[in-house]
Amino acid sequence: MEVHIGPGLPTPSGTPSGKEGKEPELREVARACLEAALRAVEPGRLVSDHLAASPLPQVTGGLYLVGVGKAAEAMAEGAQRVLGDLIRGGVLILPPASAPSGPPQPQEDPPFPVLLDTLQGLHAFRGGHPIPDAGSVEGSQAVLELASQCSHEDLLLCLISGGGSALMTLPPRGVSLEAVQQTTDLLLQSGATIQELNCVRKHLDRLKGGRLARAGAPAQVVALVLSDVVGDPPEVIASGPVSPDPTTFADAISVLEARDVWEAVPSSVQRHLLRGKEGMEEESPKEGDPGLGRVDWRLVGNNGMAVDAAREAAEALGFHTRILSTRLTGEAREVGRVLAAAGQEMRRSGEPVPLPGCLLAAGETTVSVVGSGRGGRNQELALGAALALEGEEGILVASLGTDGVDGPTNAAGAVVDGSTLSRARKRGLDPRDALARNDSHPLFASLGDLLLTGPTGTNVMDLHLVLVRGPGEGGE
Predict the structure, then answer these.
(1) Triad 295, 296, 297: Cα angle to 5°
(2) What is the 3-state secondary structure (H, E, C) of the chain?
(3) pLDDT digits (tens, 9 = 90+) for 394-432
(4) Is there a single domain that holds both residue 294 and residue 312?
(5) In the predicted model, is pLDDT for residue 115 greater than 50?
(6) Statement: residue 302 has pLDDT above 70
(7) Same structural domain, 400 and 463
């Protein structure tokens, strides 16, 4: 997987020139670290390696596969490399065929379902992300039908990765897809955390929150999971379709109230959640539910693997390294300022590591949307860092979404240094205004500072690098 730095789609000529005061050496180091991180979390290899080392239990019936999330296709390929003809059939729900680069376009994918050439026997659907769409519902209905047909002698292999919450969406009776879409959008715009968002999603769905495993009971269920959530909580990743759910209808209502969107969500959503709170709708399965008694949940990959690989790459290039956190959260622009400050401290004092140094962090920040611009949390984080780095030499901050898609853009993130603001102003751009309007993408596109990968087929949250060289290095 290659990482390009440039204004448009990835091209072989996308190498930065180093002009206009950019930090070309640090950019090449950042590129090498990010590429190493993405290679380390390639989903197909993670799955095939895991199955080779920890085989599935033997079954007397059939082996069926369900894959949901941004990494579903690669994970299924990895499973087929090991299991081959043992897989009798299955259903995949995949993300859109390409990264969004503007307003939603008419659906051009083949009609549902489609059969992937590389995954014979598996019916694949494409759903919407981060807002579910008709493909999400079509695929989810197929998943429910497959799971419901499994017997005690069968094994249901579930390949779960980030993005599964939106891609696998099957609203309950009385709640339309449009109502779920509106509720999801309101929560996203409010800056809700993934835990809050998925708490609500789990109570507006027929598969989330352990309901997929209960639908497949009494079959044996084995889940191979690629985590995109801080701390790798089973009940939150893809809204925990095979895990007990500690949240309740009352919790979902509390989230909507705390985010000040309860009055704005559709009346059908309010009605369903209130009925659930009063015990008139079935609650999600809890710990000890007999429908979850034959679930084997296995973590095959997370952001720690990506961070470790990036650290090894940096050390191989002569950098001293320190991992700040793999559980980084918070408002993106503020996190960017903190990372910039850490770089400034290292430049001045050689702490927490000597120069040249590399600080690494991973996690998932949030953006409270107040403007109508285009960008994503990684680009917003980078712009926040740029404001703090103005005029600094020898410091670079890079922020990358490992799935290759940062918000509704074609970028995975952005890279900034002490020259970012001056270069922007020379082009007549106002960085502070761009941040105020949540409009980081056009600014970075103009500067050639976008990180571009295309959809990577993996998803272990976001990766952040702070690279600092010492005085006298890189031409000083």
Answers:
(1) 110
(2) CCCEEECCCCCCCCCCCCCCCCCHHHHHHHHHHHHHHHHHCCHHHHHHHHHHHCCCCCCCCCEEEEEECCCHHHHHHHHHHHHHHHEEEEEEEECCCCCCCCCCCCCCCCCCCEECCCCCCEEEEECCCCCCCHHHHHHHHHHHHHHHCCCCCCEEEEEEECCHHHHCCCCCCCCCHHHHHHHHHHHHHHCCCHHHHHHHHHCCCCCCCCHHHHHHCCCEEEEEEECCCCCCCCCCHHHCCCCCCCCCHHHHHHHHHHCCCCCCCCHHHHHHHHHHHCCCCCCCCCCCCHHHCCEEEEEEECHHHHHHHHHHHHHHCCCEEEEEEEEECCEHHHHHHHHHHHHHHHHHHCCCCCCCEEEEEEECCECCCCCCCCCCHHHHHHHHHHHHHCCCCCEEEEEEECCCCCCCCCCCEEEEECCHHHHHHHCCCCHHHHHHCCCHHHHHHHHCCEEECCCCCCCCCEEEEEEECCCCCCCC
(3) 999 999 999 999 988 999 999 999 999 999 999 999 999
(4) no
(5) no
(6) yes
(7) yes
Say if residue 438 is in the same domain as residue 313. yes
Looking at the chain, the whole-number percentage of residues with pLDDT higher than 90 is 85
* Model pLDDT for residues 357-391, shown as the tens digit of each residue: 999 999 999 998 888 899 999 999 999 999 999 99
Is the model's pLDDT at 329 over the cut of 70? yes
- As a whole number, mean pLDDT of residues 341-369 equals 95
With 0-12 / 13-18 / 19 or more C-beta atoms within 10 angstroms meaning exposed / middle / buried, residue 476 is exposed
Task: Please tell me the predicted confidence (pLDDT) of residue 21.
Answer: 59
Domain of 117, CATH number, reads: 3.40.50.10180
> What pLDDT sits at residue 9?
37
The domain of 31 spans: 4-40+303-468
Could you tell me how far CA 119 lies from the centroid of its own chain? 23
Contacts of 68 (CB under 8 A, 6+ apart): 92, 93, 139, 143, 158, 159, 160, 161, 164, 167, 168, 238, 241
Residue 78 and residue 46 in contact, taking contact as beta carbons nearer than 8 Å: yes
- Let me know whether 28 and 127 are in one domain: no
Same domain, residue pair 152 and 140:
yes
Residue 1 has what pLDDT?
A: 75
Is 196:257 a contact under the CB 8 Å cutoff?
no
Q: For 79-110, how does the pLDDT look when each residue is reduced to its tens digit (9 = 90+)?
A: 999 999 999 999 999 998 754 433 333 333 33
**% of the chain residues with pLDDT over 70:** 91
- Domain endpoint, select from 233, 268, 301: 301
Give the C-alpha separation, 102 to 327, whole Å.
Answer: 31
Q: Which amino acid is at 275?
A: R
Q: What value does the mean pLDDT of the chain take?
A: 91
